[in-house]
Design a protein that fits this description.
The protein is an alpha+beta fold. It has 21 helices and eight strands. Strand 2 and strand 3 form a beta hairpin.
Length: 693
């Protein structure tokens, strides 16, 4: 008896110990979490591929006298032509900018052919690499300049564009966190129908997010992992979305076990034994898929891998330790008013997913073929995806820098207003300058700063920025200068070209890695080769269909003028890794039922009936969290959030409910080949019972 009491006291102490350890961890890592936002880097080098010419140019610029330059273009425009007074205003404002800041050169105005626009290129090394100083410089120049009475004044150029982009990323973390928390809160209240229960997983998810930010900052400091505004925002979505999914599965199973066990501790122990492997494998597939991004040449993608993995693992640890401990301490009353009493049975009601599964099982071949045709048809929409997104089309709301860029493109069609930057060895600078001036598509070239054995040369193309003509000019310059003179060609337009090339290379490397990593984890969990291949084929089909839907709406409905080059790779990684989650929940329960002696059809339908509601709830929550990205002012994030949200919904309500279930019914024991279950004799089929009403 004494031993029983001792064991009972120990069991009661375990949840308190777990909660205490988490409180201590929060006290320790809380200050580090506050530094996560400051660790984010959104400069060009932080996104560029390591091997690209444009990356080398950006790094060499940092070493030149004065460091990295911030280049602006002041654009003065009046419809019908500038007046003499307008030109005086422009000259006076430019002089005031010269007085207030250290400029690299004296600004010289260039009038458009029709006399309606006057542009002044302005460059300064005063801000250096400090992003805050760069933004302050741009804001200061905008504060000095201004028009009235029909004279419009805009501050554009690469520096202004970087400042506008930086301001967007500054607002992403807070906006994204609050919006995601709001969406998850509403959905949890609707799912749990309890005034208290929703608070528990939401609070635990908040703890996980804090730990993830602290760990992300630590990884950045220890291993110099690149953290961008994009990867930081994605990590927030992953922690809250994936963490809530794990909580939904655990709480659903815990509710079942509370009816079978008198003590909450015993019920939670059975819950973790039952669904723990599925949650562990689910998080493992997401973490492994994200970790494959380390093989990316693109800095932003390779940094997103470990940052995203940290978010998923933080959610896993919190939801399998802190959440169970808190639920055990709160007892059954946390489910009020729908308290699962010991020995009770849930109220019999018609199960939507049981009815869907039964209808699919009547004609499984027809349902499977119809679903495959539907996904294939939707995937054809990828043919309608626009070309690569240009920098000027990357905002959903046009900032001043983009407006200035478009004005310059219209008023100076004979030359680009945005220079290409060539870095030449100083002892060959004259030859490089002569070669650049003689290259087809070059309007003007001039030498600038020198230092450290390098000379900076600004080259203006005759074609507009990011146009096919400018791309040909960049390629021509690289053909002539890279091999013969050891020079590098960079600048904003060259950076966009290198980004697109790197994305194409990363897709060919990372897609097979992700498929292989997820396949290995599924084989280890399901003890089968057929089931993992089925799940992977399904999620790849969903990815194609989701991209196809994007192709049908991005330009015709949303008005987007291009597709982000990274959309294909990132959406693939997230949809495959996250989509397999739901397949794991379903297949793991199906395997459990088969091990308990159910015939293949009964096992498939029981698994769908018992996990369908949880999978649907989890899918809605995850889709909603990624859909929050569509509210942000960057087209790349809107496109990514849309494709992932649509893909998750397709996976939840079509693939898992119908296609995987019907395939399981058709394959029967072959689903588990070559594992032990594939060789087990099938029980005699039972007469199908009508669904409870």
């Amino acid at each position: 008896m004494r031993a029983v009491h001792t064991r009972t006291r120990r069991r009661r102490a375990v949840p308190w110990v777990v909660v205490g350890l988490w409180v201590a961890a929060l006290v320790l890592v809380g200050p580090l979490a506050g530094k996560f936002g400051g660790a984010q880097q959104n400069g060009a080098v932080d996104y560029l591929p390591d091997s690209a010419d444009s990356t080398q140019v950006a790094r060499i610029q940092d070493e030149l006298p004065g460091g990295e330059s911030t280049d602006l273009v002041l654009v003065y425009h009046r419809d019908g032509g500038l007046t003499a007074a307008d030109r005086e205003v422009a000259a006076g404002q430019v002089a005031e900018v010269e007085k207030g800041y250290e400029l690299s050169d004296d600004p010289r105005g260039l009038l458009s052919e029709d006399g309606s626009t006057l542009m002044y290129p302005v460059s300064s090394t005063q801000p250096g690499q400090d992003e805050e100083a760069m933004v302050a410089f741009v804001d200061g120049v905008r504060g000095i300049t201004g028009g009235s009475g029909g004279l419009s004044v805009e501050v554009g150029g690469p520096g202004a564009l970087d400042a506008d982009m930086d301001k967007v990323f500054e607002t992403i973390d807070g906006t994204l966190l609050m919006a995601t928390l709001g969406v998850v809160t509403v959905l949890l209240v609707l799912i749990y129908r309890s005034p208290f229960l929703w608070l528990v997983p939401l609070a635990v998810a908040g703890v996980a997010a804090t730990v993830a930010m602290a760990a992300g900052y630590g990884v950045h400091e220890l291993f110099d992992v690149t953290i961008t505004g994009q990867s930081g925002g994605i990590m927030t979505v992953l922690v809250l979305g994936a963490g809530t999914d794990y909580a939904l599965l655990l709480v659903s199973r815990y509710r079942e076990e509370l009816r079978r066990h008198e003590r909450p501790y015993d019920a939670m122990h059975a819950t973790l034994r039952g669904c723990g492997p599925a949650i562990l494998a689910s998080s493992g597939t997401v973490a492994a898929g994200l970790l494959c991004l380390l093989a990316a040449d693109l800095n932003s993608s390779s940094g997103m891998g470990p940052v995203g993995m940290i978010g998923v693992l933080s959610a896993l640890v919190a939801m399998t330790t802190l959440l169970p401990a808190v639920l055990v301490l709160l007892g059954r009353r946390v489910f009020w008013p729908l308290v699962p009493a010991f020995g009770s049975t849930p109220k019999a009601r018609r199960s939507l997913f049981a009815a869907m599964g039964t209808s699919a099982a009547r004609r499984p071949a027809a349902v499977l073929a119809g679903g495959a045709v539907l996904l294939g048809t939707l995937a054809l929409g990828t043919l309608n995806l626009s070309g690569d997104l240009r920098q000027e089309d990357s905002f959903t709301d046009q900032p001043e820098s983009i407006s200035a860029m478009r004005t310059l493109a219209e008023e100076y069609p004979e030359r680009s207003s945005r220079p290409l930057t060539v870095m030449a060895p100083t002892d060959r600078a004259d030859a490089v300058l002569a070669e650049a001036r003689g290259t087809d598509g070059v309007a003007e070239a001039a030498a600038g700063r020198s230092g450290g054995g390098w000379t900076e040369i600004s080259v203006f193309a005759t074609a507009a920025p990011e146009s096919p003509g400018e791309t040909r000019t960049i390629e021509a310059l690289r053909d002539v200068l890279d091999d013969d003179h050891g020079a590098y060609v960079g600048g904003p337009s060259a950076q966009r070209l290198d980004l697109a090339d790197s994305e194409a290379r990363d897709r060919s490397v990372i897609v097979p890695l992700v498929l292989a990593a997820v396949f290995v984890i599924l084989v280890a969990l399901l003890r089968s080769l057929v089931a993992p291949l089925l799940l992977l084929g399904a999620v790849v089909a969903v990815w194609g269909a989701a991209l196809g839907i994007g192709g049908l709406v991005f330009e015709p409905l949303f008005g987007f003028a291009g597709t982000d080059p990274g959309l294909g790779l990132l959406s693939f990684v997230f949809l495959v890794a996250l989509g397999v989650d739901y397949g794991i929940f379903l297949m793991h329960r199906m395997r459990e039922e088969s091990l308990n002696g159910a015939d293949p059809e009964a096992a498939a339908l029981t698994a769908l009936r018992t996990t369908g509601g949880v999978i649907a709830s989890a899918g809605i929550v995850l889709a909603a969290t990624f859909a929050v990205l569509t509210t942000l002012p960057l087209v790349a994030l809107v496109e990514l959030g849309f494709v992932i949200a649509v893909g998750v919904l397709l996976d939840t309500f079509l693939v898992r409910t119908y296609l995987v279930t019907t395939a399981s019914v058709l394959l029967r024991r072959w689903m588990w080949w070559p594992g032990r279950l594939s060789r087990a004799p099938e029980p005699a089929p039972r007469e199908r019972q009508p669904e409870p009403v």
